[in-house]
Amino acid sequence: MRENEVKLRAIAAITAVRSGAEEQLVSDLLGEAMPSSFLVPAGATPAEAGCAVLEQLSEPLSALVNGFLLAFDALADAHDGGEPLETSEQILQHLALVLALEDPPQPDDPTGL
Q: Is residue 111 part of a domain?
């Protein structure tokens, strides 16, 4: 699947969620962007096999993320172009704060994540 086709799947998934589509449809749309099989060199060690699979997943995953970012940026521009009560940046900051409070860092986690 070409990169733009994968980006279109991301945009379709967002559109489906916003229109109230069933979770399975959204999952199927995103799943279509992922390879259904992987090529692993004959005689590959487990580490080599894992690297081969990750390498084949990285391009479609990157394209999905880029599609989500493209869609978000377009929506944020449209939202912020009006006269919203809150900018998209403020909404994202609030969302980040809510998520951080829902999952506070553990005392034994040196990263604080």
A: no
